[in-house]
Amino acid sequence: MRQEFQGVGASRGSALGRARVRLPHALEVAEERIGREQVDSELARLHAAIDTVRGEIHVLRERLHGALAHEVGEFLDLHTLLLDDPELLQGLDELIRTGHYAADYALRLQRDRIASVFEAMDDAYFRSRVDDIDQVIGRIHAALHRRDHDTQGVAGEILIADNVAPAELAQLQTQGVMAIVTAAGSALSHSAILARSLHLPLVVGTAQALLKINDGDAVVVDGATGSVILEPNADDLRAHRARVRELARERKQLHRLRREPTITRDGVDIKLYANAESREDVAEAHALGAAGVGLYRTEFLFLQRNELPDEDEQFRVYRDVVLGMTGRVVTIRTLDLGADKADKTGLALRDEPNPALGVRGVRLSMAREGLLETQLRAILRASGYGPVRVLVPMVSASEEVRAVRALLDKAAADLRREGHEIAERVPLGAMIEVPAAALALPAFIGAVDFLSIGTNDLVQYLLAVDRNNEALAALYTPLHPAVLRVIRDVIKLGKARGKPVAVCGEMAGDPAFAPLLLALGLEEFSLHPATLLELRRAIRGLNLDSLRKRAPALLRAGDRKAIERWLEQTNAV
Amino acid sequence: MIERELTVSNRLGLHARATAKLVQVLSAFRSNATLTAKGREVNAKSIMGVMLLAAGQGTHVKLRIEGEDEATAAEAVVSLFERRFDEDS
């Protein structure tokens, strides 16, 4: 019997498939005791599962980028902290060690113990934090049984659940789930944001679906309208097929742009570079027809392990990126690390009172004897395999640029003397992300070959807004007259002196900002490959000449509202 | 041992973010730390423990720190409370 449930469409896409229902209280495990001699192995099993979850969260973090990393990252940090929580872990260990409970049941007891206290709270906010604890305990529980059921997964099925945690979503997608319907949740949740970025259809807020749908039922889900249809009829199936065709056509059109140039309606070439930090990013950048890599992050080389990578190891990584781009330029950013990123090497100073204003970026690279020299030598050696550029982060004074230039020249001379084949010239660029660097630019622009504006930090430092501070979220925006003015000035000076200027922050990756950046004179973007084709499509629909004619009005805009109005009017033209 | 009476004066209280900050600050120190409020004493180095206090704005809590670096640890926590966990303007 056909039934339709209306939820909220949280992530576009349409799916037809069999339902897999996952009821809440997955932790309904029966009491199970173990013998004294099993205690150690049970503890080992539990901690292996906790390590697995920690690893999964780490992997998920790596997969996130841009605004998403910012949104979901905080939440994942909380879960990581919970995984290390002494109370949680000691309680579990005790239940196994002295209570002789199996790990599953210990998780259940510990969960119930904590939940009962949270649920008794008056404050709704605190009461709802039990969700985070539930999710973490649920993930540990799932990891304990990974081998048993999760391998069969949910491939080709539509998951109907009470709720899904962001950390779970990526995994479900890997397992091949077609769509997700949840009773709880909102279109603004972290899970919804993540589902959209993974192109996974999601409908939230349909409690009815969970009550009425059973395992194996045929279901049609429309992630755009939020409709969930049980036992669809012929009309439903026709409508579903039409939607799928429409989406496929749209995707194909976007896909076709891989081989098209990034050119405005009035015929001006715009360069789209890719930000990259993994082999996959580089391959994708190449496949999508990126002009090159505009920002290759090197932090992962330093964050993953306990010792610093040596010159040879770095060289091999950089060389492979250069080879992967087959002749297109690769811009390698020197280590951009600071106390805000936890490293195991002990490189960054810990517990700086204000990491954003501390020993980070080029300051850290220069503070440690040999660190920058080694990295520059490795980059220069990679230049023997294809075009390479060096980009220096967090520059705030001319001296820093000149010091790096001197080191680069010396390293090049040394390498040639040692008989290495390196490029005749490896261009040096500075990131403009500290206001002082933008203002002092005339003093050192002669010492660099190109510039890259990092809008994420530039906005943070220009507006004195910590971008991780929720209370200031409304103030953190690139749509501020001061930000636009700095971007315009840097581009203008770069053009006058023949030095290419790119924008590489999140702003560059959002097609909505493209008219604004083009109006300010920008001709080079560097962005995550995930949105490269969307930006290309947006740019191909814009007329540069008319945008630049409207630039004076944009620069006169006195506040965020006026800038937003300018953008709206431009989009309407 | 050091004891301090503190008031939760940030708007959101000891919620997840503020608690995460407190735990991260304390994790740099070796000393043991507890917070007491509403008759309940919890491990101040446990995010779960501290959240269990459900200490909203205006709650009075007692901080107790014991260990070799108790003085600096106490100072760091007091400063965090005074800065309202860096969240209010």
Structure overview:
The complex is a heterodimer of chains A (573) and B (89). In chain A, helix 8 (166-175) runs parallel beside helix 9 (190-197) and helix 16 crosses helix 17. The two termini of chain A are 49 Å apart. Chain A is α/β, with parallel strands linked by helices and 573 residues long. Chain A contains 27 helices and 16 strands. In chain A, 50% of the residues lie in helices and 13% in strands. Chain B is 35% helix and 26% strand. Chain B has a four-stranded antiparallel β-sheet with strand order 1-4-2-3. By secondary structure, chain B is α+β, with helices and mostly antiparallel strands. Chain B is built from three helices and four strands. Chain B has helices at 16-27, 47-52, 70-82, and strands at 2-7, 32-37, 40-43, 60-66. The longest helix of chain B is centred in the C-terminal third of the chain and has 13 residues, at 70-82. The A-B interface holds A 74, 77-78, 81-82, 85-88, 114, 117-118, 121-123, 125-126, 129, 132-133, 350-351, 466, 469-472 and B 11-13, 15-17, 20, 23-24, 28, 42-43, 45-49, 51-52, 54, 56, 86-89.
Jot down its keywords.
heterodimer; A: 573 residues; alpha/beta; eight-stranded mixed β-sheet; eight-stranded parallel beta barrel; 16 strands; B: 89 residues; alpha+beta; 4 strands; 35% helix; 26% strand; globular
Side-by-side strand order of the widest sheet of chain A: 1-8-7-3-4-5-6-2
Assign a percent range to the helix content of chain B: 25-40%
Category by helix and strand content of chain B: alpha+beta
Helix count from the secondary structure assignment of chain A: 27
| Total of DSSP H or I helical runs spanning 4+ residues of chain B | 3
**Global geometry of chain B:** globular
Q: What distance lies between the first and last C-alpha atoms of chain A, to the nearest angstrom? A: 49 Å
Beta percentage of chain B is 25-35%
Order of helices and strands of chain B: EHEEHEH
Characterize the largest beta sheet of chain B: strand count, sense, and whether it forms a barrel: 4 strands, antiparallel
Assign an overall shape of chain A. globular
Number of strands of chain B: 4
Stretches with pLDDT under 50, minimum 5 residues of chain A: none
**Which percent band covers the strand fraction of chain A?**
5-15%
- How many beta-strand elements of chain A? 16
Give the C-alpha Rg of chain B: 11 Å
